[in-house]
Amino acid sequence: MAKKKQEKLEFRYYEMPQGSYVLPLLGEHWKRVYGRDVELLHFHNFLEIGYCYDGEGTLVLNDRNCPYFANTFSVIPPNYPHNTISGPDKKSTSSWEYLFVDVEGFLRDNCSDKPRFAQELLKRIYKEAYFLTYEGDPGLGSVIQEIIRELRCQDEYYKIKLKGLLMAMLVEIARLSTGELPRRQDVEDRSSQAKISNALHYIGKHYSEPIHIGMLAEQCNLSETHFRRIFRDVMNMTPMEYVNFVRIQTACNLMERTDASIEEIAMKTGYISLSTFNRNFQKIMQMPPHRWRRRPSSQKGQLREYRVSIEDGWE
Predict the structure, then answer these.
(1) Is 0.85 surpassed by the pTM of this model?
(2) b/e map 92-129, b = 16+ CB within 10 Å
(3) 8 pLDDT more than 70
């Protein structure tokens, strides 16, 4: 069997707003030149919905190059390598808006009485990345646009309406796979994603407490050895590397929103040693925490993307 080609990827960790299932990235900030400074494929920790309003270029979905233009949109599962590149010269501007969706959290909280349905829906949604046009898929395109409108305007009772729209969107995405037999590799990959979902949820809830591999493996009903292998295959990093990502992103949040000392923040995010906290912060954020906190005000309040370059065997 041929060896997989070693390529560098970026993992980008987004923080979901508390009490929400959707992180919207809307507005003029996302009208930009895409891909000019970033050559790497990257992947996220949530389902990504991207909608292009204007511009043209290429959306790279793992090994596929999809030419995009106005009123095209994408549905990209977690941990799926992709990148957006504006125009042939990487100089023209494109206008996109994005929704990052906590699918597993939404289904867990809203379909708890229908576990088999939720599992089947999740399997279909995570089966493949899709690149679509509004003309070809007006049902899904309309639901996405209505979700964006509700999140932008936040009219009375919008949260109640949003739940219904999210369910409608997830069903429309699941229907995209109807009539197709999933490739064996797709089934294996998405099944592995589901196997570690309890561990990801546990880390998000208990990052401030001591976490050991045995705890995480137990959450997934797997042996430690099996859990380590599946986690690495799905996330392209070890379980403890992921724990550190969650802890450091939470530390950044606390540094921006509170006056707590670095030492207090280190303790609140699960580090018993300040030196360990500083070392992990430097590795992930590429600067020490004191310097990060003193960033110019123009850099604060921006969306936090936590990135790491990973040498991995993606084909």
Answers:
(1) no
(2) eebebbbbbbbbbbbbbeebeeeeeebeebbbbbbbbb
(3) no
